[in-house]
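Is this the right way to post structure tokens for a design question? Let me know if I should format differently. Anyway, here goes:
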């Protein structure tokens, strides 16, 4: 379940990671966790169509004789129901979505969240968004211009890969990997007059999504 990814232990670990990075550097870290970065409705359509055609084939070739109205209506009803049930199977949506598309959707959503959360509104342009998308099982890092010299694209990509791999072990593992990465960042030391410019609380929709109908 997605809620288990961000349990109390994981929240505490993320809080510790943020405090560790911000206590040693001028970086302002924002954690955003999302249940998914796109709807991927094509997966619902694929499953619904396959089930509908399968149901139609069974009704046409079954030794039992179905009425014409049933043959006309029932496969579509079963297909629609099956397509709707895909919303409860995020792993199936992940399998039916090419990796490249998932990567693009996460990157796009991460950039939008960077702006929405105002991560660019820091004095030294030292904001760092850690965007975690649970359905896609991906982590994206978005850095502000003040971090570009310390974190070139190749370094960011390597960090994203490391954090993404850690997702398989849960939120606590991702938080610990983030703390380790933060300890390796230098070149932007904490200033004597440094203040906490961005909220440290985790921006997450996992709990709300798990309570709502899917």
């Amino acid at each position: 379940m997605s809620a288990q990814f961000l349990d109390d232990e994981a929240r505490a670990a993320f809080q510790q990671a943020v405090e560790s990075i911000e206590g040693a550097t001028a970086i302002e870290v924002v954690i955003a966790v999302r249940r998914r970065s796109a709807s991927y409705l094509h997966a619902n359509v694929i499953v619904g169509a396959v089930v509908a055609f399968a149901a139609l084939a069974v009704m046409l070739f079954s030794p039992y004789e179905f009425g014409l109205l049933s043959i006309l209506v029932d496969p579509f009803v079963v297909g629609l129901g099956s397509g709707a049930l895909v919303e409860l199977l995020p792993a199936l949506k992940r399998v039916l979505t090419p990796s490249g598309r998932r990567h693009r959707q996460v990157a796009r959503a991460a950039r939008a969240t960077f702006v929405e959360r105002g991560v660019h509104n820091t004095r030294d342009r030292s904001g760092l968004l850690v965007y975690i998308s649970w359905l896609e099982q991906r982590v994206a890092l978005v850095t502000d211009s003040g971090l570009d010299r310390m974190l070139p694209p190749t370094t960011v990509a390597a960090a994203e890969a490391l954090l993404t791999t850690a997702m398989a072990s849960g939120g606590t593992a991702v938080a610990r990997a983030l703390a380790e990465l933060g300890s390796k960042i230098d070149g932007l030391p904490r200033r004597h007059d440094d203040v906490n410019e961005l909220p440290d609380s985790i921006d997450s929709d996992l709990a709300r999504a798990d309570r709502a109908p899917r």
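Format looks fine. Someone answered above. Worth noting: The chain has two domains: 2-38+98-211, 41-95. Strands lie at 28-34, 127-133, 138-143, 203-204.
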